[in-house]
Amino acid sequence: MRTRPLKVALLGCGVVGSEVARIMTTHADDLTARIGAPVELAGVAVRRPGKVREGIDPALITTDATALVERDDIDVVVEVIGGIEPARTLITTAFAHGASVVSANKALLAEDGATLYEAAERHGRDLYFEAAVAGAIPLIRPLRESLAGDTVNRVLGIVNGTTNFILDRMDTAGAGYSEALDEATALGYAEADPTADVEGFDAAAKAAILAGIAFHTRVRLDDVHREGITEVTSADLASAQRMGCTVKLLAICERAADGRSVTARVHPAMIPLSHPLASVREAYNAVFVEAAAAGQLMFYGPGAGGSPTASAVLGDLVAVCRNKLAGATGPGESAYTRLPVSPMGDVVTRYHISLDVADKPGVLAQVAAVFAEHGVSIDTVRQKGRPDGDGEASLVVVTHRARDAALSGTVEALRKLDTVRGVASIMRVEGE
Ligand code: NDP
Ligand code: HSE
């Protein structure tokens, strides 16, 4: 057992960082035994030095994060500040000064992971980021290491706790959108700017990270088709319930059948209540991984919050410290396949389209003809006249599997029909 401690610089001491510091202190003996050397918190960089931080020696607090990561005695930098800058520069500076890095920063990894991977490799350091996707759930390491000998074809799941919490509250408790978002924020699930959650940026960043690792290629945030939950209405949820479904924000990463390209997308989707993802409640996450030899694997657990996320950070910290003592590094970037990312139009799935139409003879046939012209086959149609007898009806069409581009063309043509007063909602149907 080495007695000289490994020194850790903690960048950020908010929801996640404060829990990392707490566990490092309360579990110091166990961590020492597991790593083979003590780990010492050598400094904590924050924005507001005057804030009271329970359990943290005030002498460790600094606002000069750069000076902290430039210290030659720092072995590991834990970055839980978030955002692109200064996080990116701090991480690359840490590598240049000899430290390995543990980060929970999915936004940065999805925006510019290549810069971080390249800097880590150039300086022979570790870059670990289990906490960046799906909170406490071990997912990055299984994909990077346990499944390294298999071929992953599909990753599908709920990877944003905040939006799952909101949809769950709206669906099961009849809560309003804003009320549910406020609750998720108070519980520490939401990003500093919750727009990142509700507009799907956070889930899209995670999808980019997952797709890159799963398919051994580079996928950036901009490559991911993204739709958030702000347009999901209680009418959508009610319509889903009538179909025996619920609505979830899904991240779906797929390798094309010919293996020559991949797709990555994030959008709300209806899934049957019988599907395991339908029962994922509150801020929990769940991810299915389909691999050629392994078959279907499911990962489930708390997807957000300080303590669950700190668990993933601490797991990485232990791994990185062990590597350091062994004079080794863990796996770096694996992007050798260089598979291109296909556009959303190439995705094939099913759709639930809700239309407001004129309630008169021939309308159904007209609508059906538009679907047929675009090669989109209809599975079911439900029409309901309005109780107020205003001459309009609600028409709900569920399609068979079709290309997303064909569906977009269909909707565009439907909007031009005089008898179609409005397209109330379009939602993809997954998991059947
Ligand atoms: P918080 O906003 O709660 O904490 C951010 C911390 O960073 C604060 O301590 C803040 O200081 C500090 N900080 C901000 N800017 C600077 C700066 N320029 N220099 C030094 N310190 C700075 O965020 P979270 O803890 O929720 O999230 C941290 C990271 O973890 C993000 O990347 C997030 O995406 C990720 N993450 C979060 C999860 C969650 O459930 N919250 C789950 C998974 C990942 P001060 O305290 O003084 O304001
Ligand atoms: N805001 C994120 C979420 C935190 O709600 O899932 C976990 O990454």
Automatic annotation (TrEMBL):
Domain ACT residue range list: 352-428
InterPro entries named among the record's database cross-references: ACT-like_dom_sf, ACT_dom, Asp/hSer_DH_NAD-bd, HDH, HDH_cat, HDH_CS, NAD(P)-bd_dom_sf
Cofactor: a metal cation
Reactions that this protein is recorded to catalyse: L-homoserine + NADP(+) = L-aspartate 4-semialdehyde + NADPH + H(+); L-homoserine + NAD(+) = L-aspartate 4-semialdehyde + NADH + H(+)
One GO biological process term: methionine biosynthetic process
Molecular function, one GO term: metal ion binding
Binding site for L-homoserine: E191
Pathway info: Amino-acid biosynthesis; L-methionine biosynthesis via de novo pathway; L-homoserine from L-aspartate: step 3/3; Amino-acid biosynthesis; L-threonine biosynthesis; L-threonine from L-aspartate: step 3/5
Described purpose of this protein according to its UniProt entry: Catalyzes the conversion of L-aspartate-beta-semialdehyde (L-Asa) to L-homoserine (L-Hse), the third step in the biosynthesis of threonine and methionine from aspartate.
Protein name: Homoserine dehydrogenase
Organism name: Streptomyces corynorhini
